[in-house]
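A.,

Following up on our hallway conversation. Structure tokens first:
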């Protein structure tokens, strides 16, 4: 690429020449803005009745200074509509972000299901995904510690299938009748409506310390899974055991898993807290921007399959939603993949109005008697009645099946269809009995519930097979890498330190944590000043001590696509270096932002004009995965700049790789940083690319955390 006096021209050209993914969506800002312009461009402004409006700035008044007239139907229509713009937010999972994509099945799935979207590899099934936090209201921050909802609507040719899962494979309660209690406890406290988006408060810990069945799910929430780096790098799970039915009517138990190609990564806690202030929309923005950049996130869908005859062969109950099936016992069989490749046009119409329900299933998939799932089957439709204002929410465009649907349901609030004919009942002879039922025996036949044999007494009781609440919580903790275990200790310590009532803190540590793992309990107890009884003799002996894929370390991506790097630049930055970095970023599909001291362009060593993508004060290091400090004749400037120094210190504290180009060991000393495998000091960017790639794939410089821990107090 020839040198150019104008660095910006160079950057545009190199982006065009580079081997980038399909960026037809383009990152060019003006084009993006064009895309979101109103679809009413070139149309006259009218009322909802179609009357053209001549003045949208002034209401109708009696004289220029007079009172406003009731007669002003234009004003009244506009204000009335505005007054009703909000609908009730979801009672849980209120804060979410959505995107469109498609699912593609792998060959061979007819071995266990007859669902056509899973067996016909020639079709791409459109999907809509909504990712959410559980606790906070619509306006809460994205990066709070919480489980993430991961709901997928598959618009199949045989009807909509909703897989309404979470990023943890287990839930807090075993029976749906406990769900409102759990939600009341975790939501903001009733007298203050505090805290927003957080579980670090008395009522949550009061409840979970009294309900041992929550121990396993709480452990997931307190681990790094509770603070994902972004929503492109979270796993999803169907949680409950479902069934799949093949064409011969044979049923098998399945657990759904979906795993990101991007690998799994988490925020460090300090970073999560800072982001909640510096960019409360961090996750929402990240997903939107990745899709706009053409960096489409991808997940592989898989199932753990258990033959019906093996139902009782585990030391936990398959119907218990607080249990996983360790992958050592039943591996995950991949059945397809999905990508998200289109942002919504309108948040309200799509993300807010989408209505998921675990009861939306298609032939080839069926339920089990998991008592949590059974309650969910009722709850979701019920909630839409008040949230979306009546039973016709399936007619809202985002909820509409892509296949035709016909029945005799009529009328009700917000009916969009104009049903014709007299026969809105069956049987009828007026319309030849149409629409007709389809026998299940036919190809693509009607839905038939799996004929499970039920034989029991009506009884309000939990099965004994649901009673081991601690073994799998222990398995989870013991399967984590040492740095992940440390984060769990830190998270329990932080959360419980916010609990005002000492007896709640003590109960959690002495009766829950001590029953899970003594090391964990002792460390948290020590941090909180609580003596912990040794309960090890109560521990149930289990054959499996570790399950490899519970640790996020088991999910290191193959590449670094979609990682974000900031390059700190000042006047007299070496333009040639920036060119090398940008060429590399295009090749690796990495997002690079050049950040100056202000938004004003900086001057390169040869006097070139370099436009900044942002300024260091406004785009803090917490937004990025790594920081590069460019070389040039600018060391004095960098040394004098407090913002840059803080930037680097914070990146170091958050275990991020930092590249000091121009071998700035003087600066490293001055900042008081301990050089480690993540502080890359070189003259030339090409000397660090391999190491930087390695560190970015592994996401953090974990050895630095251990190094900092090892320093004697
Ligand atoms: Fe939900 N849940 N839930 N839930 N849930 C809702 O439905 C409910 C449960 C999950 O992006 C609500 O439309 C009950 C488990 C997600 O729109 C509500 C029980 C799992 C979402 C509801 C559960 C989930 C919801 C609120 C226990 C993981 C967001 C608004 C019996 C497998 C969906 C709405 C979206 C939303 C009820 C337990 C996941 C009130 C009664 C277990 C991802 O109907």
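Then the amino acids I'd put at each of the 713 positions:
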């Amino acid at each position: 690429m020839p040198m150019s006096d104008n660095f910006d021209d160079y950057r545009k050209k190199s982006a065009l020449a580079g081997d980038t993914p399909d960026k037809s969506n383009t990152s060019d800002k003006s084009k993006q803005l064009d895309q979101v312009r109103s679809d009413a461009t070139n149309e006259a402004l009218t009322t909802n009745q179609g009357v053209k409006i001549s003045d949208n700035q002034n209401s109708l008044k009696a004289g220029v200074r007079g009172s406003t007239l009731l007669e002003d139907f234009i004003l009244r229509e506009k204000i009335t509509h505005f007054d009703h713009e909000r609908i009730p937010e979801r009672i849980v999972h209120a804060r979410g972000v959505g995107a469109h994509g498609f699912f593609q099945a792998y060959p061979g799935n007819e071995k266990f299901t007859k669902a056509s979207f899973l067996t016909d590899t020639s079709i791409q099934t459109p999907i809509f995904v909504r990712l959410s936090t559980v606790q906070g209201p619509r306006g809460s921050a994205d990066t709070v510690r919480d489980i993430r909802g991961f709901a997928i609507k598959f618009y199949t040719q045989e009807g909509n299938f909703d897989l309404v899962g979470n990023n943890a494979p287990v839930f807090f309660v075993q029976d749906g009748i406990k769900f409102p209690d759990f939600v009341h406890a975790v939501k903001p406290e009733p007298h203050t409506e505090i805290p927003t988006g957080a579980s670090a408060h008395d009522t949550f810990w009061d409840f979970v310390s009294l309900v041992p069945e929550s121990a396993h799910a709480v452990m997931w929430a307190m681990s790094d899974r509770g603070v994902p780096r972004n929503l492109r790098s979270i796993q999803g799970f169907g949680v409950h055991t479902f069934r799949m039915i093949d064409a011969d009517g044979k049923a098998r138990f399945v657990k759904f898993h979906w795993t990101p190609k991007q690998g799994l990564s988490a925020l460090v806690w300090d970073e999560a807290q800072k982001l909640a202030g510096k960019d409360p929309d961090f996750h929402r923005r990240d997903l939107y921007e990745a899709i706009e950049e053409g960096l489409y996130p991808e997940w592989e869908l898989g199932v753990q399959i258990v033959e019906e005859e093996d139902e009782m062969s585990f030391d936990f109950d398959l119907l218990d939603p607080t249990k996983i099936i360790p992958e050592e016992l039943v591996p995950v069989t991949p059945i397809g993949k999905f990508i998200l490749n289109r942002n919504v046009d309108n948040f309200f119409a799509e993300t807010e109005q989408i209505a998921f329900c675990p009861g939306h299933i298609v032939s080839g998939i069926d339920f089990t008697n998991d008592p949590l799932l059974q309650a969910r089957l009722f709850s979701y439709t019920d909630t839409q009645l008040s949230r979306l204002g009546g039973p016709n929410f399936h007619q809202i465009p985002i909820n509409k099946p892509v296949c035709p649907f016909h029945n005799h349901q009529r009328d009700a609030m917000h009916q969009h269809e104009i049903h014709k004919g007299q026969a809105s009942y069956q049987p009828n002879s007026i319309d030849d009995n149409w629409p007709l039922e389809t026998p299940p025996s036919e190809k693509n036949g009607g839905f038939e519930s799996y004929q499970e044999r039920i034989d029991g007494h009506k009884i309000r009781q939990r099965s004994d097979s649901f009673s081991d609440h601690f073994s799998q919580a222990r398995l989870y903790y013991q399967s984590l890498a040492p740095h992940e275990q440390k984060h769990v200790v830190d998270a329990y310590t932080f959360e419980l330190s916010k609990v005002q009532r000492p007896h709640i803190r003590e109960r959690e540590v002495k009766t829950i944590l001590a029953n899970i793992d003594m090391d964990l309990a002792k460390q948290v107890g020590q941090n909180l000043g609580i003596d912990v009884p040794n309960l090890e003799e109560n521990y149930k002996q289990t054959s499996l001590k570790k399950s490899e894929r519970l640790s996020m370390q088991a999910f290191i991506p193959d590449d670094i696509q979609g990682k974000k790097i900031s390059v700190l630049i000042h006047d007299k930055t070496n333009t040639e270096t920036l060119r090398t970095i940008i060429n590399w970023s295009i090749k690796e599909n990495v997002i690079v932002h050049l950040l100056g001291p202000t938004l004003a362009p900086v001057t390169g060593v040869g006097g070139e004009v370099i436009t900044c993508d942002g300024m260091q004060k406004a785009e803090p290091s917490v937004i990025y995965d790594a920081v590069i400090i460019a070389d040039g004749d600018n060391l004095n400037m960098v040394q004098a700049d407090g913002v840059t120094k803080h930037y680097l210190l914070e990146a170091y504290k958050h275990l991020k790789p930092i590249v000091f180009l121009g071998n700035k060991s003087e600066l490293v000393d001055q900042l008081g940083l301990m050089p480690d495998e993540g502080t890359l000091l070189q003259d030339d960017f090409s000397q660090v690319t391999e190491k930087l790639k390695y560190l970015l794939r592994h996401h953090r410089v974990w050895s630095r955390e251990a190094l900092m821990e090892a320093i004697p107090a």
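The CA atoms of residues 389 and 446 lie 29 Å apart. Curious whether your intuition agrees with the design.

B.
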